[in-house]
Write a structure and sequence with these properties.
Helix content: 25-40%
Largest sheet: 7 strands, mixed
Order of helices and strands: HEEEHHHEHEHHEHEHEHEEHHHEEHEEEH
CATH class of the largest domain: Alpha Beta
CATH superfamily of the largest domain: Type I PLP-dependent aspartate aminotransferase-like (Major domain)
CATH topology of the largest domain: Aspartate Aminotransferase, domain 2
Distance between the termini: 18 Å
Shape: globular
Number of strands: 15
Strand order of the largest sheet: 4-10-9-8-7-5-6
Radius of gyration: 22 Å
Length: about 425
């Protein structure tokens, strides 16, 4: 089959192809950037907006907090609606603040409230190290032993978790389970976990449930409110293209908006805006996720996200983007089956409902790093994960079917 011609035909039918022009792609026209699962590329609008805010700082100084097109005091709030739409939340359930790991710590202060009888936290066996460190340290902070309080669920076979693996692990904890913290998408395999099922099982066991959406936000369709998650957190520098160190996001289900039984670490920026500048030392949080904010938002690492979210809105939201992602994946699968075959194993599930835009390729024979470096030398930017996995992610915002064709063709040539 002439895959080059097929890719060209599919690109010609792609209604989102013009969005590629909004990004500065490493390697230029000859480069293929497939690492949006680690750091998304620069939206040109991000640079323009930050430059505008820099100019405003120079011209207005402190008055920039309340003046100009984007007053800094309300900058995170101005992005609440598009961000809520991307994660399937009500606007008041979402806040932009801090970074992912800091936010997980802040959320666990509220949602991990262990007792002598109910104290366990369930995580995945191959959790991203930062999540593991957060949970382990939070357990110790409350005076419990991570050796007995930290429960890890591993696949019964193979690389990926089944629904049964997770549900059975939740049930096995019984009344000792306090919290379930799992990823929306597993970072290593690219597997989408059954979040609605997990939330229902955790609640049935009397536990709270939260999700790390670092690899899910901006990648797949999410319905956090309808799935009844208690909380979630995510970064914005991967699929959301906010740039290195860009502001993180949180979701807190609206049922907790006025729940005074939850502990929280309070700060001035979590105080309601209408009376914040009266400088009263009585903490009054708003009945929204903003009540979990602590510090003044980092304006420039928040402003970078404005331009990216505008592109998501223009694209028509996650439904339209997901449709293209699935087309890219099907085309890639077809080429891999035909040109690569069993020379490289795929540890990402084949079922579309169990995968985001990432494909994780396991290279045998100790050649993984060699193959990865050969791809990079050819201008195809991939991601390496120890000990033997190459991860690639096809973003519908800026990747084309021709990108897929060139990637698989080069991979087949290298491993032949």
């Amino acid at each position: 089959m002439d895959y080059t011609a097929q890719a060209s035909r599919l690109d010609g039918l792609d209604s989102l192809a013009h969005l590629r022009e909004r990004f500065a792609l490493p390697g230029g026209e000859d480069g293929i950037y497939l690492i949006g699962n680690s750091l998304g590329p620069l939206p040109f609008a991000a640079r323009e907006i930050v430059d505008q805010e820099m100019d405003k700082w120079a011209e207005m100084g402190v008055h920039g907090h309340f003046s100009g097109e984007r007053p800094w005091v309300s900058l995170p709030e101005s992005m609440r609606d598009p961000m809520a739409a991307l994660v399937g939340a009500l606007p008041h359930e979402v806040a932009l603040m801090n970074s992912l790991t800091v936010n997980l710590h802040l959320l666990l202060i509220s949602f991990y409230q262990p007792t002598p009888d109910r104290f366990k936290i369930l995580v995945e066996d191959h959790a991203f190290p930062s999540d593991h460190f957060v949970v382990e340290s939070q357990i110790a902070l409350r005076g419990f032993d991570p050796e007995t309080a930290l429960v890890r669920v591993a696949p019964a076979g193979g690389e990926t978790l089944s629904s049964a693996d997770i549900i059975e692990a939740i049930a096995a904890c019984g009344d000792e389970l306090s919290l379930v913290l799992l990823p929306g998408i597993q970072y290593y395999t690219g597997q989408v976990l059954p979040m609605a099922e997990i939330a229902a099982a955790a609640h049935a066991a009397g536990a709270k449930v939260g999700f790390d959406l670092a690899h899910a936000a901006g990648n797949i369709e999410l319905s956090l409110h309808d799935w009844d998650a208690d909380f979630a957190a995510w970064c914005t520098y991967k699929y959301l293209n906010g740039g290195p160190g860009s502001v993180g996001g949180i979701f807190i289900h609206e049922r907790y908006a006025t729940d005074t039984s939850l502990h929280r670490l309070a700060g001035w920026w979590g105080h309601e805006l209408s009376t914040r500048f009266e400088m009263d030392n009585t903490f009054v949080p708003p009945p929204t996720a903003d009540g979990w904010m602590v510090s003044t938002p980092a304006t420039f690492s928040t402003a970078t996200l404005v331009g990216s979210l505008e592109i998501f809105v223009e694209a028509g939201g996650m439904a339209a983007l997901r449709a293209k992602t699935e087309q890219l994946l099907v085309f890639c699968d077809q080429m891999l089956d035909d040109l690569v075959g069993d020379k490289i194993a795929r540890i990402t599930p084949r079922e579309l409902e169990q995968r985001g835009s990432q494909i994780s390729l396991e290279v045998g024979g100790g050649r993984g790093k060699e193959v990865f470096e050969s791809m990079e030398a050819a201008g195809i930017y991939c991601d390496w994960r120890y000990p033997n996995v190459i991860r690639v992610a096809f973003s519908p915002l800026y990747n084309s079917f021709s990108d897929v064709e060139r990637f698989v063709s080069k991979l087949a040539e290298i491993v032949a």
